[in-house]
Write a structure and sequence with these properties.
- It contains eleven helices and eight strands.
- By secondary structure, the protein is an alpha/beta fold.
- It folds into two domains: 193 residues, 2-enoyl-CoA Hydratase, Chain A, domain 1 (Alpha-Beta Complex); 33 residues, no CATH class.
- Helix 1 links the parallel strand 2 and strand 3.
- Helix 1 runs parallel beside helix 3, helix 5 packs across helix 6 and helix 9 runs antiparallel to helix 10.
- The radius of gyration is 19 Å and the shape is globular.
């Protein structure tokens, strides 16, 4: 599967302070995920990890919807090795989003179908239009959701994730939010996501990244407290923490 398709992703900075908007830009293909699009997003995540000017990322879709999942026409033209390589790269993308130090938000309008749903679920905060269409249609057409089911399951729980994977449930934005797939319903999801991203970008960068690090994997009991304590200790060494501790120290009689 080739990865030389041009203009699959558009990046816009300056709509909100410290926020990068990443637009899936294949409206003629309903923003379906090609190999070129996945490769570009993987490279972009790597680039943004070291960008001091960026504090949050917003994913959006051009045209009528967010993302219609994998490009089935491209998959159909590939051999088994190419299909497996594409799905593996898509899985790396979702895991990379979860583990990325920057907060990542999704603004969903129109539809988040198949890989579009799993891509959105891998984001930290998801804002959806009330009439957006959410579904995993792979199994009914003889396929399987090859990546991203873990973020879906983390959001909605295993019983609901199983129903979604079977293709039993098709949700609108309000139902997706009630199930936990989305965090907020808004008539203008991009505007709402950019506003939330600006709030996140204004946070101390190290501490915001610490939240991502803590929630990047499931920890229980003492291990969870050990991780939180280590992140707290590290945060106390930053100028922001020193200023706050000094201010509160002066307030003590």
């Amino acid at each position: 599967m080739g990865s030389d398709e041009p203009d699959v992703v558009t990046c816009t900075q300056g709509l909100a302070e410290g926020v990068l908007m990443v637009t899936l830009d294949r409206p003629q293909r309903r923003n379906a995920m090609s190999a070129a699009l996945v490769d570009r997003l993987l490279a972009l995540l790597q680039e943004m990890a070291g960008q001091a000017a960026i504090g949050a990322i917003v994913f959006a879709g051009a045209g009528r919807g967010f993302c219609a999942g994998s490009d089935l026409a491209e998959l159909a033209s590939a051999d088994a090795v190419g299909r497996a390589a594409f799905e593996a790269a898509s899985g790396r993308l979702a895991r990379g989003m979860v583990a990325h130090p920057l907060p990542i938000l999704a603004a969903v309008h129109g539809f988040a179908i198949g890989g579009g749903m799993t891509l959105a679920a891998a984001c930290d905060i998801v804002v959806t239009a009330p009439d957006a269409h959410w579904s995993l249609p792979e199994v009914p057409i003889g396929l399987f959701p090859a990546w991203g089911l873990e973020p879906v399951s983390d959001r909605v729980g295993r019983p609901m994730a199983r129903r979604l994977a079977w293709g039993i449930d098709t949700l609108d934005g309000k139902a997706a939010c009630a199930a936990g797939l989305a965090d907020l319903v808004a008539e203008a999801p991009l505007e709402a996501a950019l506003g939330l991203a600006a709030q996140l970008a204004a946070l101390p960068r190290g501490q915001a990244a610490a939240v991502k690090s803590y929630f990047s994997r499931v920890r229980r009991g003492e291990a969870a407290d050990d991780m939180a304590r280590a992140l707290f200790t590290q945060a106390c060494l930053t100028p922001e923490a020193a200023a706050s501790l000094a201010r509160f120290g002066r307030a003590v009689p």
